[in-house]
Design goal:
Beta-Lactamase, 700 residues, 51% helix, histidine kinase, 19 helices, 5 domains, Helix Hairpins, CheY-like_superfamily
Length: 700
């Protein structure tokens, strides 16, 4: 084949263009056959012609023919497999060749010469092999090479534009880096600082030339000394403490290192620094990028919050101290109540013994009992004088929110923080002391929190009750309250292990709620999914309106002509029996009840002229029972019998009863109260034991 080919020269083969005409499909098949047999020859001649056109110097190891051979291989495959589609597909194959030539620093004109040379080589090889060049084949060659050249040049232009964009983006990025608030520093593997943006200079307060260039130990040490760099705790900040130095040493990121520096114009700036190692493709450490961020304002606010939190802790300490003082007062009051129960038994027994034995000995014993009662009264003074209330109209929702803010840190602290859900219904105002009401909510929140060993939810709900009261419910997700322990939950003298402290606090809260005319109860959530403290307080408007009618109601007589049937309600069975025995000997028909529930059942069965009610009972207090009995029998005589001091009760509560008798009871005063035909005149409470408080007695 080579022997029959004439020498290759410029312009050969064009004399036979008109000699033969074929269709396009045949032209593609003819060109494919020639290229398939002569692709190596075409590649070699193409590379030779290209070197001549571009004055390319042949360099050892540089194969100019390889990329051309790949293009020819693709052209042959497309002509054989895709036929006429090769005219459309081959330019797409050549597209990447333009980017390749850009990397080899070819010029756009060089690409035009390259594919012009290919056209010339293809025509001459075809003529030398076939003898003649049909017009359709020549046209096919020109179309293939011109389309391929245009595609390569378009790809070249796109890469050129992309590189221009990259250049512009680099310029923009550099400008941005110099104007953003975050400083960037680049450290080399040897510890030298090779690059820093302008914000680094602004944040440190020194020129860039003081930071960049040279080893960090020599260049940064004077800078840190000049700006008096130090840790937030006050220790001097050394070069070794810099995050990039630690990242170079540990070969891992270092985050959130704080450094305080002095500003040139005065003041201190707090900087947060982080460092990230940079790795080569082979896995070797290339350097470290460190960032600087100004956290001065955030640090200032954090310090202010810390100061506020310390102040809050101090106030909480005062609150707890105040609560402890109230607990001691409640303990004294509870102890006095228990002691008075025993003294009352003694006095009642003395009353019986006086009728059978020598009166002079019994009088001495009676005087001793009176002295003990006086001592108890003085002990109760500690409870009465423990606080000074300033009653105002307080928004219940506001008090709840303020208490929650005081306790939020305490509730969210620890291994199992609690979630608090507020369901505040804006029910209105109550008549109470705002500070004490907040303390009350705080105490109940702490009690509810202590019931949950794991993380859980507290739900605080306020709403209006149908009886003219407002209610606050604090529901937890702790275990349900055992039914047998409900009676001792508010007992400050409980003997259960671990219970006294909690019981003291809850007793203080219950007593305070009662002083405001309300009640504190506890309930189990349906389904055994927790417990609920329920505080009910009268609405402020109704609390004011209730006092006057209640007082007027007590002005006139409201009893039967002769009192004979008496109901004694006391959870202390010994006290109740002795009272019944003494009253029985005086001619009264006495019935006993150890709970409010039994008392109400007896009251419904028959008519009673009077009721003597113990003030403190585990299920329902005597004051609450008096309200129920007053609604059922408005004209019955009702008296409270208690060892507690009643001067803390408000007027509306005192107006529920006709008298209050302190234990140990003066039986003469009690008999006079029960046997009178008209209602007694109002009188203030006395300090001595056994004295009665008349109906409608004012709140001292």
């Amino acid at each position: 084949m080579l022997a029959c080919l004439p020498p290759l020269g410029r312009g050969g083969g064009h004399a036979h263009l008109e000699a033969l005409t074929v269709n396009t499909k045949t032209a593609i098949e003819l060109l494919a056959q020639v290229l398939d047999k002569e692709r190596e020859r075409v590649a070699r001649l193409w590379a030779k012609r290209l070197r001549e056109e571009l004055y390319e110097v042949e360099v050892p190891g540089k194969d100019l023919r390889a990329p051309l051979r790949q293009l020819l291989d693709e052209l042959v495959r497309l002509l054989q497999d895709r036929g006429e589609d090769a005219l459309r597909l081959w330019p797409e194959v050549v597209r990447s060749h333009g980017a390749f030539r850009y990397d080899q620093r070819f010029e756009p004109d060089d690409l035009a010469r390259e594919f012009k040379a290919l056209a010339s080589v293809l025509m001459r090889v075809y003529v030398r092999c076939e003898g003649e060049l049909p017009y359709e084949v020549a046209d096919l060659i020109n179309e293939l090479t011109s389309e391929a050249g245009a595609s390569a040049q378009a790809s070249y232009a796109r890469v050129l534009r992309t590189e221009s964009v990259r250049f512009r983006e680099a310029a923009v990025m550099e400008s941005v880096l110099y104007h953003v608030e975050v400083g960037i520093l680049l450290a080399e593997v040897d510890g030298g600082v090779s690059f820093a943006t302008q914000p680094v200079s602004r944040l440190l307060g020194v020129p860039i030339r003081s930071v960049v260039g040279g080893r960090a130990l020599t260049s940064l040490a004077p800078v840190l000394a000049q700006v008096n760099a130090h840790h937030p705790g006050g220790e001097p900040f050394r070069v070794a403490d810099m995050p990039f130095m630690r990242a170079l040493k540990e070969q891992k990121p270092v985050r959130g290192v704080m450094m305080d520096v002095e500003r040139p114009g005065g003041g201190v700036a707090s900087l947060e620094m982080s460092a990230t190692p940079i790795w080569e493709e082979g896995g070797e450490l290339a350097g470290v990028i460190q960032t600087f961020s100004d956290r001065t304002e955030a640090t200032r606010k954090s310090r202010e919050l810390s100061t506020a939190q310390d102040e809050l802790r101090r106030l909480q300490g005062q609150l707890l101290q105040r609560t402890r003082a109230q607990s001691l007062g409640q303990l004294a009051s509870g102890a006095a109540h228990a002691l008075n129960n025993f003294l009352n038994v003694v006095r009642l027994r003395v009353t019986l013994l006086r009728r059978e034995f020598k009166p002079e000995h019994l009088d001495a014993l009676d005087r001793t009992v009176g002295q003990i009662g006086g001592l108890v009264s003085r002990l109760q003074e500690f409870n009465v004088q423990r606080t000074e209330e300033h009653l105002t109209d307080v928004e219940l929702d506001t008090a709840v929110r303020e208490a929650l803010e005081l306790m939020r840190g305490e509730l969210e602290r620890g291994e199992h923080p609690l979630e608090v859900t507020l369901q505040l219904g804006a029910p209105g105002t109550v008549r109470a002391d705002a500070g004490f009401l907040r303390e009350l909510v705080v105490t109940l929140l702490l009690s509810a929190r202590d019931r949950m060993a794991q993380a859980g939810r507290l739900t605080l709900t306020t709403q209006k009750e149908g009886t003219g009261e407002l209610s606050l419910r604090i529901q937890d997700e702790g275990p349900p309250f055992p039914v047998e322990s409900l009676a001792q939950l508010f007992d400050p003298l409980t003997r259960e292990a671990g219970a006294p402290q909690s019981a003291l606090q809850l007793a203080v809260v219950k007593d305070q709620v009662r002083r405001w005319g309300g009640e504190l109860t506890v309930e189990n959530v349906d389904g055994g999914k927790g417990g609920t403290f329920v505080v009910r307080l009268p609405r402020a408007r109704e609390a004011h309106e209730e006092a006057l009618p209640a007082g007027r109601r007590m002005e006139g007589p409201r009893r039967f002509q002769q009192t004979r049937r008496v109901l004694v309600v006391d959870d202390d069975l010994d006290n109740a029996r002795m009272m019944a025995e003494v009253l029985g000997e005086e001619g009264y028909d006495v019935q006993l009840a150890q709970s409010a529930e039994v008392a109400l059942q007896l009251w419904e069965r028959r008519r009673y002229d009077a009721a003597l009610l113990d003030a403190v009972m585990p299920d329902v207090s005597g004051w609450e029972l008096a309200r129920e009995l007053r609604q059922r029998t408005p004209h019955a005589l009702l008296a409270i019998v208690t060892g507690m001091d009643v001067r803390g009760q408000n007027r509306s509560t005192l107006a529920l009863v006709d008298a209050v008798f302190r234990k140990p009871i003066d039986m003469g005063a009690l008999d006079e109260f029960l046997s009178q035909s008209d209602a007694p005149e109002p009188s203030p409470p006395e300090d001595g034991p056994g004295e009665s408080v008349g109906p409608g007695a004012p709140n001292p």
